[in-house]
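Page header: ASSEMBLY MODEL / two components / 1049 residues total.
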Amino acid sequence: MFAILQDVRFGLRMLMKHRLATLVSIVALALGIGANTAMFSLAEAFLIHPVPLENADRIIALVDSRPGQNIDMNAVAPATYFDWKQQAHSFDQFAAYAWREVNLTGDREPQKVQTFQVSANFFGMLGVQPELGRAFLSEEEVPGKEQEIILGHALWEQRYASDQHIVGKNIKVDGKAYTVVGVMAKGYDFPLPAEAWIPLALDVKANLSRNDRWLWVLGRLKPGASYTQAAAEMQGIAQRQSELYPDTNKGWQLRPMRLSDFATGSLTRDYTLLLLGAVGFVLLIACADVANVQFARMTGRANEFAVRRALGGSRWRILRQLLTESILLSLGGAALGLLIAQWALYLILSHMPADVARFIAGWKTISLDTNAFLFTLAIAFASGIISGIAPSLLTSRTSVSQSLQESGRGSVSRARGRLRGALVVAEISLALVLLVGAGLLVKNFRGLLNVNESYAPQTLLTINLMLHDTQYTTSAQRLAFHEQVVQRLSAVPGAQGVALVTHVPYSDGGGVNMDVFSIEGRPRVKRGELQSAIIETTTPSYFKIMNIALRSGRALTDTDGADSMPTTVISASLANRYFPGENPLGKRIRVGGEDSTRPWMTIVGVVNDVHYSWINKEDLPTIYGSFRQAPPYYTTIVLRTPGNPLQFVSAVRSQVAAIDPNLPLYNIKPMDRLITDSIIGIAYVAAMMAVLGVIALVLASVGVFGVMSYSVSERAHEIGIRMSLGAQTKDILRMVLRSGMTLTVLGLGIGLPIAFALARALAALLFGVEAADPFSFIGLPLLLAGVAALACYLPARRAARLDPLKALRYE
Amino acid sequence: MEPLIQMRNLEKVFEAGGSKFFVLRRITLDIQRGEFVTFMGPSGAGKSTLLSIIGMLDSAWNGEYYFLDQPVHKLNVKKRNELHKANIGFVFQSYHLIDNLTVFENLEIPLSYKNVPHKERVSLVCDILDRFNIVGKKDLFPNQLSGGQQQLVGVARAVIQNPKLILADEPTGNLHSAQGEEIMQLFKRLNEGGTTIIQVTHSERNATFGNRIIQLKDGWVVSEEKAATLSANPQANL
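Prediction written out in full:
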């Protein structure tokens, strides 16, 4: 123990002696370790504990998917849920839930609240109980008896001022009286972003439905049952269901998911892993930098190690001493890295809009906790060993007698030179891969912003509202409301146009709902195929406000009313996909499958596509119906303004309140904000990758500079001889530059194919990104080569300015 | 009593470009316990290489080498290191003190490599500081000492572990004559105390402190002779 303390003491002394090298190493490691610690904290929140439930590891989510159509998580049909409850043996319970947005009215300001309809056993199965009151009872799952509500803690605090006697009181939910039966504990908001819960009451018809997939199902494993066993059993059941009910189940695949994976979602998981890989690369580059610094320092100390060996020090003792110094360096880096990580997390947390953060599983738990501290300590030790092992091993292998006979001057080994060169090559390769990844993600983000510029989103105001069915029972009531909204808002001074549409692009965080539709006269869609489109109900003004150009036929007009022939306008992508080589005008389509009772709509026009979601690369088929022919409950107001849309919010509120004072308006945002909120995840990933790319670029150039500087001092004697033999400044410059740029070109040569493979994988996922992107594959390597050339030039200039006499005398 | 060192047909060869360069040729010699032997010869004769081999710092050679009856040529690295640690101390021409350690810490190093407990180490270092009269220098770093003082510490470091053999490679090469004399007197006293000493030197005067001179040339032992008696006038033998 004392010997180790002695190593530590001496190590600290050595580090203090070479302050500049120590500082450079600590900063490099701090950047690498800090990035890893911050990313670990995110990964821990997203991947390890996204759901704060004690028995989360026993809960399996059972979702439907259609791999061929890019649907990786879909709800299931109620009948399927009941089949599972009867047939599965690996689970002791199943619970189900469904999304439902409600309006709270009555005693206070109207407020839209995100609730979830949950089965009575939902809370019990998850192992949570309300803080006040009780959970739901099984008799409350019956239609007509489900008018109970459990409040989330935040809603209880904010709307009901933490009323301790709230349980048993009635509140108005969508105009109906609901009894508060409980209040959940602080921080509990599963399924995200639940603000309240109401019972899931399925009627007989719903129970039998196999086609409408709207129920999310969770199962709890029986004691002793494993995830693998349960997944295998459920796949068997799903296979039987597919054979029994081919019309509704063929083409769908059951996907059992651990609760953490389900809550996080595939994209968050993939991007988190991508960023974990990226920070790993940065740390490796930092380690390579430090290894190079260590090489230089240890070469200068070859004599010391030889003396130690001559005095009886074993190779292991020398190695231990060197690794101690290396680990001390990385612990210094870790200390600074923790500060960097704390700062990075502050930036990450503070820039996320609250109304986006509430949808992200685990977001609230992001912090530098004990696990992050232990992780930092572990990677500090690992970094110390990674960066120190090669220099230490080579140094401890140095010939003792040779070193001693060279009067204290370290010997230059070819192996050492080759290894240092290899480290620089690796740094350049890794930096290039990171830069290309960052470049593609930034391009993706910019592409998503640019694609929507056609409709000038910065001057559009978007507002959601939802009419509840108790007050707006008939189509006529809803139509009257919508017409009044359009009329009143059109008269608002300064408003340049108003439209209603079900969903604007990029709403719901970029998630897109697509519904099945049928084409008149076409054979029924083959089993396992899905003919679906986004269904929009809109005012005729929507196309003009959104600058959606008409391609053929006509747009919707005010004459497309309830009494006239049902009409529709379709997007070009729908026309191309489902009416290739034929004129769709005059053809009839309807929402729903074979058994749909919805009316046939005649296609009267084809319009350009609008990009709907950052998730989808392709344009999505869209059907626009007239709001007069099917007045919706849920709609989005789109208001074109001359400047800042937020200045119109109060006018819109007062005009809507004048029609219905109990109707809450929500998601009030300028359209550009809605888009950026939707793609903020991409923005975060792009920004983080860009920062990591820049760090990698800087570290790699520091690596090149370090190696070339050291090489110049090693070769001072040779340079002196060359100069004394007539070499000119430009010859020396060329010699040093050539040597550095050879390493750089080698690094680029290795990095480019790896970067290209990464680009191909990303291009398949990202909008506006091509695998052979010229900026990424010509611009970024040139940038890296330019920075490396500068890093070589400085030592080269120093070499060219060497005084040959001094260099020779020194030797 | 068996000799301390026995060498039989020891050879060291460098191979480069397909050619062999012999550094040492068929070295056969015995060194008895308590001897003070001097290796002499021109540069490139192989003196320092032979010293390194005796000190077990160099293991790339052929032939037989027995140290305290142990066949060094058959020992693995670990055993060689143990033998070396237990019995051999080095003194170098360039002192080779570790720049970043104080005098005290420099003296402590060989003991720490022998896993001597801390308390005992401190006690041994204090003894040696006292014996060499350098207590006042214990907290100084090597660059704060004169060459003579550094070499004094170098000898103290070699002696601290009480070795059976001290190997000294040009121990006075970087010192002026008075300091060199002092160091050689120190070796003489150590030898008289029973420590075997082998030195490499170009100095005829230094050779007279020993009792046997072995001349090397081009890797061969070319002669062995008894050292001349130490003259009362040092200048006479320089």
